[in-house]
Amino acid sequence: MLRKKANGAARSNRMVSALSELGTAAVDRRTFLKRSGLTIGGAAAVATLSGGMVRRAEAAGETATGEMEIRKSVCTHCSVGCTVIAEVSNGVWVGQEPGFDSPFNLGAHCAKGASVREHAHGERRLKYPMKLVGGKWQRISWDEAINEIGDKMLEVREAAGPDSVYWLGSAKHSNEQSYLIRKFAAYWGTNNIDHQARICHSTTVAGVANTWGYGAMTNSYNDIHNSRAIFLIGGNPAEAHPVSLLHLLKAKEENNAPLIVCDPRFTRTAAHADEFVRFRPGTDVALIWGVLYHIFENGWEDKEFINSRVWGMDQIRTEVARWTPDEVERVTGVPGSQLQRVARTLAESRPATLIWCMGGTQHTNGNNNTRAYCILQLALGNMGKAGGGTNIFRGHDNVQGATDLGVLADTLPGYYGLTPGSWAHWARVWDEELDWLKGRFAVMPGAGDEGKDRLMMNETGIPVSRWIDGVLEARENLEQPDNTKVMVFWGHAPNSQTRLPEMQKAMGMLEMLVVIDPYPTMTAVLQDRTDGVYLLPASTQFETSGSVTASNRSLQWREKVVEPLFESLPDHVIMHKFAEKFGFADRMFRHIEVKDGEPVIEDITREFNRGMWTIGYTGQSPERMKSHMQNQQTFDRTTLRGVGGPHDGEFYGMPWPCWGTAEMKHSGSANLYDTSIPVAQGGMGFRARFGVERDGDNLLAEGSWPVGSEIEDGYPEFTFAMLKELGWDKDLTPYERRYIDYVAGYADQRPNQGDDVGEQSQTGPIPSDYDEKIGGVNWKTDLSGGIQRVAIAHGCAPYGNAKARAVVWTFPDPVPIHREPLYTPRRDLVTDYPTYEDKTFWRVPTAFASIQKNDYSQDFPMIMTSGRLVEYEGGGDESRSNPWLAELQQDMFVEINPSDANDLGLRDRDTVWLHSPEGGKIRIMAMVTERVGRGVVFTPFHFGGYFQGNDQRGKYPDGADPYVLGEACNTAQTYGYDSVTQMQETKTTLCRIERA
Q1: Residue 119: is its pLDDT beyond 70?
Q2: DSSP letter at 489?
Q3: Omega of the bond prior to 883 within 30 degrees of 0, cis?
Q4: CB within 8 A of 26, min separation 6: which ones?
Q5: C-alpha neighbours within 13 Å on the C-beta side of residue 229
Q6: How far apart are CA 942 and CA 967, in angstroms?
Q7: Smallest Cα–Cα separation from 177: which of 635, 580, 516?
C-alpha cells in the first residue's frame, strides 16, 4: 500500500482494502500488468481485485447483474491511440480489456492504459462546481457557476476588451470539442486561445510544415515495421509511449534494424539500443550536422532524390562543412569516430526512420532542431518511403487533433491562419455574417503598421507559454489593448509549464481564475488567493463520444462508455452553457443540433468536415470512423490498409489528408509524400506551398510525380483557373460549379489578388503562392470539394507537387545553426554560437541575449533537463490520483551521477534542494545513478502539490487531493522560448544541488 508521505495524507479509505494484496514490496511493470489482469498472452481474470483493474468479460459477468455491454473507446493518455474495450453492466463500467483487433496496440496496454477505468471512476475527481470563498472551497450549482463566471467575464470584456479573457484549451478534448472551443473563442472575439501543443511540439509543426508542407508525423508507428534502421533523438518511448516500443522492437528483431538512440540520458529506450550516443543537452543541430558531415564527405547522400525533390541542399552543405569532427566533439561531447559509425550505419541501412519527441523540441532554437532532423532524412532520401519518414511521437492522446482543429493562438481550424481570407472562409462554413464576427474583436487605433489600425482579429494571440507575461508585463509593453485579467484553464496542468513562482504571482493578480477539468489540477493549490477561483467538473472522454487523432494522423471514434458521473458535464455541454450566457448560442450552433442542452457530436464533426480542406479532414465522416472502429480486424497490422471487408483498400482511421468529401471514399494517406502509389490511394509529392521559384531556382519537383499523374512533372497547387487552363473544369458537376461560383462571389465579388486564403504554420500568415497569376477559388477554399475531386481523378495531388525546402527564408535562421542555450555552462562557446537578440513577438517582449550575457555557471554548475516517467503523464493530476499507478512511483526525485553525488557528499535517497538561477527551488529525493552523465541532472515533470518545500495538500478540495504529491520540477525551470513559436525551454538550464 502507499507509504505515508506527509502528515496530511491522502484522504481515502478505499486504498487499504484494494491494495492490501499488493503489500509493500516494489511493483515493476510486469508485476503490475499481471496483477491488473494482463499477461503477455492477453487478459486474465483477477476476481479478487476490483476498482480500476483490467478484467476479462466473463469474470466481470459473474458478479454483475443485467446484460453486459461492450463499448469501444481509446486510451486517454499518450498518442499511440490504443483501443480500450470497456465492459458495462447496468450503466457501470465493471471490466476492461485491451483491443486485440486494434492495429495500433495489438492487444497490449501499458501501465497507464491498463488502469484507465480508474480515470473515469476515480474518487479523487472533482464532483461538483466549487468556488473559493474566504480561502475555503464552497459547493455551488452549475447555474450559479455559469452566471457568476459569465457576469465577471462580461464585465471584464466591457472594461478591458475581449482579449483580456484567455481561453486555454486542451489536448484532452476530442476533435469535436477542440473545434468547438476554437469556434467559441472566435465568437467571443479573441485569438488568446492555445493548448499544450505550444509547449510540446509547436517547434515540430513549424519546422516540419515549413520544410515540406505539413507539420505532422509523416508515416506511422506501424510503418516502423518496414524500417532497416531507427534513429531516435530526444525521445524515450519506452516510458512516454510504451506500446509504441512493440513496433520498434519488431523492426529491430525481424529486420535486424540497428536502433540508434541519441540522448543526454541513458533511458529505458536506450537500454534497447545498438548504439547509444550521449550528448550535451541543447546541441542537437551540431550533432546532426556532425552525422551529415560524414555523409557528405563520403558521398553517401541520395543525389537523385535531392536533385529532383529538394531545394537548398547546397546551402546546407556549406554550413555542415564547418562542423568537422573536432568541432562537433567540442560542442556536443560526442567523439567524431562514433558519429562516423552512426553515419555509415544510416547509409548502409535504408530506408531508416527518424524519431523525435520533446527532447528535441523544447529549446530556444527548437525550430532549428526539427528542421535539421528533416534535412538529414532528405539527404539520405528516406522521405516518402515505407520504413522511412520522420515519425514524430506526439504526447497527449489528442494533441495532434487539437492542433489540427486550431486550438492555437495563430490559426483557425485546419491551419488556415488568421488572414481576412481565412476568416471569410470560415464565415462561409459557419454561415455567419463576417461583419458581425469582425465586430466581436478589438481594434487598436493607429497601432498597426504605418499608423494603421491594428485589427486584433488578424493578430496572433499570446501563446500559453507566455500567458503569465500577459498578466505581469506593463500594459504599454503588450501588443494588445490591455492585460490578461481572466484565465480559464480548460484541461491544462500548470505544472507542465516553466517559471512557476512567477505563475503563482500572475494567478494572484488575475481578477478571476477558472479551472474546468475532471481533476482540480495543481492550479487549485498553486494559486495563493482567498477568492475569485472556480473549479468546474468536466467529464472524462469515457463519458462522452467523439473522434480523436492519433500521432499518425488516423482518426478513431470513441463510444460513450458511461454517463457523466457525479455532477460533471462534457466539455461541449459547458461550452454551450457559456455561449447561451454570452448570447451567441443561436449563431454558434445554427447548424449543430442541441438536444437537452448537449450539442450533437456528429453534427460538430460534419461541420468541420465542411471546412478543413487544407489538411484533408473532410473525408472522415462520423459514419466512416465508426465503421472503421467496428471493423478493426480487417486492416493490415503493418500497412494499415484494409484487406477485403467493408473498407478494402482504405487506411485504418483514414489518416489525413483524406481528400474530398466522404462520398469520394478516399483511402486516407498512411505515408506522406509517397510517389510510388496513386493519389487516389494515398500517394502524393511534397506540397507546393512556398512559390514556384526562389532566386531563379525552380521550387517545383523535377522528374518526379505520383504514379498515375497526368502531369508528369512538378506543378503548383490547384485552383479553378488551373482547371480551366488544363481543360479539366468540364469535369466539375453543376453543383460543384455553382458552389465555386458562390465562394468566388462572396461579398459580391471574387477574391482579388492578395485576398486569397493564406495558411499558418506558427510563424505568421503565408499568402497563397499563385494568386498573382491566377487568383480565385482553390482546392482549400472550394466548399464543394470539386477541385480536389477533379485533380485526383487526373492523378494529381490538389496541393501540387513541389520540392521540399532545406532552407526556410522566412525564419530567423534560414539554415539551421547551433545556438548556445540561454543558461549555458559553456561560456567559451557563447561568442561563437550566440543566441538571438531580444525582440517582441506573439504580443509580448521576449528576452534572449540579455539573459545569455550573464554568467550563472559558477553558482549553478549543473545542467538540468527533464522528461517523462512510465507511471505518470502530463502534469500528473489524473495518474497520481489513480491508486494503481500511485503505488508504482511515490517520490519526486532528481537523477545525479555518482561522481557528482560523491563530490557533493550525497547518497542515494538523500533529500536535497535543487536551486534555480531565477530563485525557484525544489526539495526532492536524490537518485544516484549512471543514467545521467557527469554534470547533468534529470527530473520528471509529473509532480505537483508541493511548492518550494511546502506541502499544499490541505489546499485541495476535500477528497480531491492526488494520492501522491511532490515538487513540480518546473518550479526550478527557467526563462527561455523558441525564436519562432515561443516553445518553452525545459531541456537545458542550470541548477545547483545541495543537501537539505
Answers
A1: yes
A2: E
A3: no
A4: none
A5: 20
A6: 9
A7: 516
990 forms beta bridges with: 863
Q: Which of 785, 775, 784 is nearest to 722 (CA)?
A: 775
Q: How far apart are CA 112 and CA 129, in angstroms?
A: 27
Pairing of strands 594-595, 598-599: antiparallel
The yes-or-no verdict on residue 746 having pLDDT over 80 is no
- Residue with cell string 561522481: 899
Cβ pair 172, 116 in contact under 8 A: no
Provide the pLDDT for residue 66: 66
Cell numbers found for residue 736: 460543384
Q: How far apart are CA 327 and CA 325, in angstroms?
A: 6
DSSP string, 6-67: SSS----SHHHHHHTTTTTS---HHHHHHHHTEETTEE---TT--TT----HHHHHHH--S-
Residue pair 539/568 in contact (Cβ under 8 Å)? The answer is yes
Confidence bin at 120 (pLDDT 50/70/90): confident
**555: pLDDT strictly greater than 60:** yes
Closest CA to 709 of 837, 795, 833: 795
Cα angle 262, 263, 268; round to 5: 100
Q: Is the pLDDT of residue 244 over 50?
A: yes
d(CA 752, CA 419): 14
Local structure of residue 433 (DSSP, 8 states) = -
What is the mean predicted confidence (pLDDT) over 746-754?
A: 38
Q: Which three cell numbers stand for residue 435?
A: 461583419
Q: How many CB atoms lie within 10 A of CB 815?
A: 20
Record the cell numbers describing residue 508, joined without a space: 494572484
Model pLDDT, residue 738: 85
Burial class (CB in 10 A: 0-12, 13-18, 19+), 11: middle
For 818-827, write each residue's pLDDT tens digit: 999 999 999 9
| Residue 627 host element (H or E) | helix 622-630
Reported as a single tens digit per residue, the pLDDT across 835-891 is: 999 999 999 999 999 999 999 999 999 999 999 999 999 999 999 999 999 999 999
Please indicate, yes or no, whether the overall pTM of this predicted structure exceeds 0.85.
yes
DSSP state of 837: P
Residue 23 one-letter amino acid = G
| Paired residues of 89 in beta bridges | 68, 92
> What is the C-alpha to C-alpha distance for residues 291 and 285, in angstroms, rounded to an integer?
10
> Among 56-60, 582-586, 720-724, which is the least confidently predicted range?
56-60
Sign for the CA dihedral angle at 991, 992, 994, 996 comes to: negative
DSSP secondary structure string, 927-945?
Answer: EE-TTB-TTEEEEES---E
C-alpha cell at 873: 503523464
Picking from 782, 736, 793, 397, the residue whose alpha carbon sits closest to that of residue 612 is: 782
Which three cell numbers mark 313?
541542399
Asked whether 588 and 187 are in contact (CB, 8 A), the reply is yes
Q: What is the mean pLDDT of residues 635-655?
A: 98
- For the cut 70, the answer to whether the pLDDT of residue 892 exceeds it is yes
Task: Return all residues near 612 (Cβ < 8 A) that are at least 6 apart.
Answer: 404, 405, 413, 414, 618
First vs last C-alpha separation in the chain: 27
Report pLDDT digits (tens) over 25-83: 444 444 444 444 333 333 333 222 233 334 433 433 444 456 899 999 999 999 999 99
Quote the longest CA-to-CA distance of the chain: 81
Amino acid at 131: K
What DSSP letter does each residue of 346-361 carry, written as one string? HHHS-SEEEEE-HHHH
For every residue of 666-699, DSSP letters joined together read ----SSTT-TTS-GGGT---B---S-SEETTEE-
Question: In the predicted model, is pLDDT for residue 5 greater than 50?
Answer: no
Q: Which three cell numbers stand for residue 351?
A: 530506408
Q: Are 471 and 509 in contact (CB under 8 A)?
A: yes
Q: What angle do CA 138, 140, 143 make, to 5 degrees?
A: 155
Single-letter code of the amino acid located at 388:
G
